[in-house]
Write a structure and sequence with these properties.
The protein has about 400 residues and is α+β, with helices and mostly antiparallel strands. The chain has 10 helices and 8 strands.
C-alpha cells in the first residue's frame, strides 16, 4: 500500500493500459486487492474534481445552479466493487463534458463528440460489458454503452422536445440529482452520473427513488397548465363569452356511449338541469361557479344535486364543501394532488380542452357502477369509463394535453 501511495503521489496515470489492455485498476481488482482498488478510485475522483471545478464562471454552465432538492439515500451511494471500473469511466466522461462545455460554450450533442479530443473511445464502453451498445437513445456516431440524457435525440411521448429539453425541465423539479449519463449494463440497478458529478445506484425509473408517485412529464405539467389556462382565459373573458364555448376537437363520442340505459334517465334530467343552471350563472355573474352548491337556491334546488339512483351517497371525489352533492363538478376550485400539485381541477380541465375540446366533462356521476355518466362542457351526455380520456385516446398519458 505504501508503494501504491508513493506512485499516486507522483501523479502516475492509473488508467494507462498495458499491451494486454490491462489497467492498474483492473489488475488490482483481478488479484483481489480491494484496498488498492478503493485507493485508485479515490485518486481518480480527486483528479477529476479539480477539472470539474475549472469551469465557466457561475451561471454559464447549463449544468450549474441546480438546487439540492432531494437527498440521495446513503445505500444508493454505496457502489458495489464490480461496478467501480464503470464509475471511473463515468467520472472521466463528466470531466470531459465539463471541459467541452467550457471551451465550446455548449454541451456536446452526443458523447461521441468528446472523442478523441476530450476522451478516448474506450471510455464510452462500460468495462462490465464493452461490446454491448446502448439501446436507449443510442449514439449515432460510434459504439457507446452509456445513455447520455442530455443528447439532442427527439422524444416520442414528449413531441417537439429533445432529451436535453426534458432533462432541463426535470432539473426544476429534481434539482441536482437529475442524471447526466446513465449505465444500464449492471442488471436491475442502473448507475446514474448526476449533473453535478455524483454517482448513485438507481432503479430504471430513477425519479421514483425520490418521488414514488411521480408520473412521466410531471415536471412540465404545472408550467404548461398555467400557460394553457392563461391562454384560454384571455380568449374567453370578453363579456358574454362563455369559458365553456369555442373549444374544438377531432374526437367523436362512440354511438354506443350515447345510448343511456332507462334506469339512468332520471339522472340525465338532473345533469341537463345542472348544465342549464351553470350557463345561466355564468351569464349573470361573468364567471363559473366555484362549486355546484353556489347554484342553490337561485338557479337550482338542492335536490338536483343528488343523483336519484343513490340520493344519500355523497361524492367522494372533490366533495362540495357546503352541502350534500352526488355529482363531481370537474370545474371546481378544488386543489389537485399528485402530478397536478398547485393546480385546481378547473385549470386542469381547461388545459384538457386544448386536446379534447367540448368532450371534456363538466360534471360526472359515479353512482351507476362501472360506467359513469359524463355531462360535457357543450351539454352532451355520454357513458364513460372511470378514465374517460381512454374512450378517445387509449394510449393517453397523464398530462399529455399540457405537453403537446
Amino acid at each position: 500500500m505504501a508503494i501504491v501511495e508513493l506512485l499516486l503521489a507522483e501523479d502516475v496515470d492509473v488508467t494507462a493500459k498495458t499491451d494486454k489492455s490491462e489497467t492498474p485498476l483492473s489488475l488490482a481488482k483481478g488479484n483481489g486487492h480491494r484496498q488498492v482498488v478503493e485507493l485508485l478510485v479515490q485518486h481518480v475522483v480527486r483528479d477529476i474534481a479539480p477539472a470539474g471545478a475549472r469551469q465557466a464562471k457561475p451561471g454559464k454552465s447549463l449544468l450549474d445552479g441546480a438546487a439540492a432538492k432531494f437527498t440521495i439515500p446513503k445505500r444508493n451511494l454505496e457502489i458495489p466493487e464490480q461496478m467501480l471500473p464503470c464509475v471511473v469511466n463515468l467520472r472521466r466522461i463528466y470531466a470531459a463534458i465539463k471541459e467541452y462545455e467550457k471551451e465550446k460554450g455548449k454541451l456536446p450533442d452526443w458523447l461521441s463528440d468528446l472523442v478523441p479530443e476530450y476522451l478516448t473511445k474506450e471510455m464510452l464502453l462500460c468495462p462490465h460489458n464493452p461490446v454491448h451498445n446502448n439501446r436507449n437513445n443510442p449514439d449515432p456516431n460510434m459504439p457507446c454503452s452509456y445513455n447520455y440524457q442530455f443528447s439532442v435525440t427527439r422524444l416520442g411521448n414528449f413531441k417537439g422536445m429533445t432529451s436535453r429539453d426534458r432533462k432541463m425541465a426535470q432539473m426544476r423539479l429534481f434539482g441536482n440529482v437529475v442524471p447526466l449519463v446513465r449505465c444500464r449494463m449492471h442488471g436491475q440497478m442502473w448507475l446514474a452520473l448526476t449533473v453535478n458529478g455524483r454517482v448513485y445506484l438507481s432503479p430504471i425509473m430513477w425519479e421514483h427513488l425520490f418521488m414514488p408517485d411521480y408520473v412521466p412529464g410531471q415536471e412540465l405539467l404545472v408550467q404548461h397548465a398555467a400557460e394553457a389556462f392563461a391562454s384560454v382565459e384571455a380568449q374567453q373573458v370578453k363579456r358574454g363569452k362563455s369559458r365553456l364555448e369555442g373549444a374544438t376537437t377531432t374526437f367523436t363520442i362512440p354511438k354506443q356511449n350515447l345510448e343511456i340505459p332507462e334506469q339512468m334517465q332520471s339522472c340525465v334530467v338532473n345533469l341537463r338541469r345542472i348544465h342549464a343552471a351553470i350557463k345561466e350563472y355564468e351569464k349573470d355573474r361573468g364567471k363559473l361557479p366555484d362549486w355546484l352548491s353556489d347554484l342553490v337556491p337561485e338557479y337550482l334546488s338542492k335536490e338536483r344535486l343528488l343523483c336519484p339512483h343513490n340520493p344519500v351517497h355523497n361524492n367522494r371525489n372533490y366533495p362540495d364543501p357546503k352541502m350534500p352533492c352526488s355529482y363531481i363538478y370537474e370545474f371546481s376550485v378544488a386543489r389537485r394532488g399528485g402530478p397536478y400539485k398547485d393546480m385546481t381541477t378547473r385549470e386542469h380541465k381547461i388545459g384538457q380542452m386544448r386536446l379534447f375540446g367540448g368532450l371534456v366533462p363538466l360534471v360526472r356521476c359515479r353512482m351507476h357502477g362501472q360506467m359513469w355518466l359524463a355531462l360535457t362542457v357543450d351539454g352532451r351526455i355520454y357513458l364513460s369509463p372511470i378514465m374517460w380520456v381512454h374512450l378517445f385516446m387509449p394510449d393517453y398519458i397523464v398530462g399529455q394535453e399540457l405537453l403537446d
